[in-house]
From TrEMBL:
InterPro entries from the UniProt entry: Plug_dom_sf
Keywords: Signal
Signal peptide segment: 1-25
Protein name, UniProt field: TonB-dependent receptor
Gene3D superfamilies for the chain: TonB-dependent receptor, plug domain
Length: 668
């Protein structure tokens, strides 16, 4: 007869171990392991809480929509879903279900690092478990209005079968809208114009997610499904010479189904298979009303993605892992739009675009754990991709891209690690770049326009990390990138006009320096406190295709920094903290104008209070510095920055307001 341990007993056991002494993290070759007792001091109630408290580890959720995985695994695997944030997946796993969390450096144990130098692996207990949680929250705006949200989560594990159901309804304000002013200054000394804008917007979404897993044919199979309908509505009152109202009424729906199967084979081999299908639908209506006349711009988009992938892993010897696999992906995006000048006019079809990308990628790699101090990984991916658009020939061109990589990790002492990486990356082409600017209404223009190809980057990276004082860590890294076929805006000139299009503009170089410091404050009269400092400096160089002058890459932020502090107070059943960053600032160069976007710093503070073991009350104060968002536009005569004079400058500034979030979570 199987005897299961109730979840509450496991939690009590963890607390008892923590009270008896500090939990010790086990050190293995290239990895450090943390048991649940270690996290009792932080009052964690989910795997996400635990991961965020790992010493020297910085959580990265990845970008599922672009195929970029996060840096946290569950039982050595990444979640199948591409639409669900990794933080949500980890937030549904209760502490009672976690056996340990491993911090893995340099591919220890044959883990596929997916481009990260450090990942963490959440290992779940082989035990029966029933858990549930409900969360009610509301955003409180400065005018006292509320934007409520609710979530529910249920987990059941019996033997080899597991099921998870998650329901959510969320409403949130658009933090980028508020009181704005737009000032336009003309180069010919015409009187400047000023416009006042008042805007507000609300996002609303509903989601139903289901995950099921069980043993099958000596392996494990899992299925996930998700349905996510959403809406966005906004309005902006334009108080210029002519009073007008801009409004947006957008709606969409995302659907996903994923199937994964893994099985151990003979002689230390294992197999992983994956299938994924997802669709996204969007309908938007942008209206402008002035002088009793309302015009509408409508747009509809349907997108889909199909993925089939398989991977074989072989433990070839002591510390040696060989991995091979193949993935087939087909992405399709179909867009149409129309414009209606007034209620009495018929809608006029606009420029639509259809794009399909087909990609097959094979990979072969080997990871070698030489000893407790040295590990290495080498591999090669070979990508075959083709792109078809509604503006191109039926037989779209195909390309083959090799993507080699080499990683080394050296630990001359347990607290010190040196990591080196050299890798070639190939970007994914943006659908709008691929089709939206191919001269859909003028096929003769498209005939002289070169096909767009992905950007290719050679990366060389070195990182040095030092761990100290249990939770302390310092890291410094330098990355040098050499980029070919950079994608940006480029001019297509004729005798009568200049067209702004997306294209490959040549080669570029980029340098990045990143620093991180996690400093425990126990010796500073702030027990259980942790101060986190991080900063990133970037520099790049590319030849502007319009002016032929050297400049930065578009969208690059030269300097970014962030300061965070948190303190756990178990005796008071409380945790509190704050964070401050420097916002953003970047430039984008188009053929006829230069745009600068910036946002001032963001400040946030929070306090968690646990009135009972299964209750957590959270108060968040956001945007305490009242972020200002500015957008500066320098427009040139003739829509061409080459040998043209400045036509006008436009300065937009939006001042946003602080808001609060109140949240209550109960675990069952």
């Amino acid at each position: 007869m199987r005897h299961t341990i109730p979840a509450r007993h496991i939690v009590l056991l963890a607390c008892t171990l923590a009270a008896g002494g500090r939990a010790i993290a086990a050190e293995t070759a290239g990895a450090q392991s943390y048991v649940p007792a270690y996290f009792a001091q932080f009052q964690a109630n989910s795997a996400m809480d635990m991961v965020s408290r790992l010493p020297g580890f910085s959580f990265e959720g990845g970008n599922p929509g672009r195929g970029t995985a996060g840096n946290v695994l569950i039982n050595g695997k990444r979640p199948t879903s591409k639409t669900e944030p990794l933080s949500d997946v980890l937030g549904r796993i209760p502490v009672a279900a976690v056996e340990r969390i491993e911090v893995i450096n340099g591919g220890a144990g044959g883990i596929d690092m997916q481009g990260y130098t450090t990942v963490s692996n959440v290992v779940l207990k082989p035990m029966d478990l029933v858990s549930a949680s409900t969360t009610a929250s509301s955003t409180v705006m400065p005018d006292g209005s509320l934007q409520p949200s609710a979530e529910g989560n249920y987990n059941l594990k019996r033997g080899d079968k597991s099921i998870n159901v998650a329901l959510a309804w969320r409403r949130s304000p658009d933090g980028g809208l508020g009181h704005s002013q737009r000032t336009t200054t003309y180069a010919d000394h015409s009187p400047s114009t000023e416009v006042t804008l008042e805007g507000a917007g609300v996002n609303e979404s509903k989601s139903v997610k289901l995950n099921y897993g069980q043993d099958l044919l000596d392996g494990q199979i899992s299925w996930n499904g998700a349905l996510n309908p959403w809406t966005y509505q906004s309005h902006i009152v334009n108080d210029g010479a002519t009073r007008g109202l801009n409004s947006n009424d957008n709606a969409g729906r995302n659907v996903e189904q994923g199937l994964a199967y893994s099985r151990d084979l003979a002689h230390g081999a294992s197999m992983d298979l994956k299938a994924l299908y997802r669709t996204a639908e969007f309908e938007g209506d942008s209206a402008f009303a002035a002088n009793g006349v309302t015009s509408h711009s409508t747009s509809a988009t349907t997108a889909s993605e199909h993925i089939l992938a398989g991977q074989l892993t072989l433990q070839a010897g002591d510390g040696v892992v060989i991995r091979g696999g193949i993935e087939r992906a087909v992405n399709t995006n179909d867009n149409s739009n129309a414009y209606q000048s007034n209620a009495a006019s018929a809608a006029v079809p606009g420029v639509g675009a259809w794009v399909q990308e087909s990609r097959v990628e094979g990979q072969l790699s080997s990871a070698w754990q030489v000893d407790s101090k040295l590990s290495a990984e080498a591999g090669l991916k070979l990508e075959h991709s083709s792109l078809n658009t509604s503006a191109s020939q039926s037989d779209g061109k195909a390309y083959v891209y090799p993507k080699p990589r080499l990683r080394l990790s050296l630990s001359p002492m347990p607290a010190l690690q040196l990591r080196l990486r050299m890798e070639r990356e190939v970007s994914q082409i943006n659908f709008w770049d691929a089709a939206g600017y191919y001269g859909m209404a003028d096929k003769s223009l498209r005939a002289d326009y070169p096909d767009l190809v992905p950007a290719k980057t050679w990366l060389c990276e070195g990182a040095l990390e030092y761990r100290f004082a249990d939770r302390g860590a310092a890291m410094l890294s330098y990355t040098q990138a050499h980029i070919s076929d950079v994608i940006d805006r480029m001019p297509i000139r004729s005798a009568t006009t200049t067209v702004d299009a997306a294209g490959n503009i040549g080669d570029a170089s980029a340098d990045t320096v990143t620093g991180m410091l996690n400093l425990p404050t126990d010796s500073l009269a702030l027990p259980q406190g942790l101060l986190k400092l991080s900063t990133t400096w970037r520099s790049s160089s590319v030849t502007d295709p319009t002016t032929l002058a050297t400049r930065r890459l578009s969208g690059e932020q030269a300097l970014a920094w962030r300061v965070e502090f948190s303190q756990d107070l178990p005796a008071q059943r409380t945790a509190w903290g704050f964070s401050v960053d420097n916002g953003w600032s970047n430039d984008n160069w188009q053929v006829g104008e230069r745009d600068t976007s910036s946002g001032s710093g963001w400040a946030r503070a929070f306090i968690n209070y646990r009135p009972a073991n299964n209750l957590m009350l959270t108060l968040e104060l956001n945007n305490l510095a009242s972020r200002s968002i500015t957008y500066d536009r320098l427009h040139y005569a003739g829509n061409d920055r080459f040998a043209s004079n400045l036509d006008f400058t436009e300065h937009n500034i939006t001042r946003t307001q602080p808001f609060a979030m109140l949240r209550l979570r109960r675990d069952w």
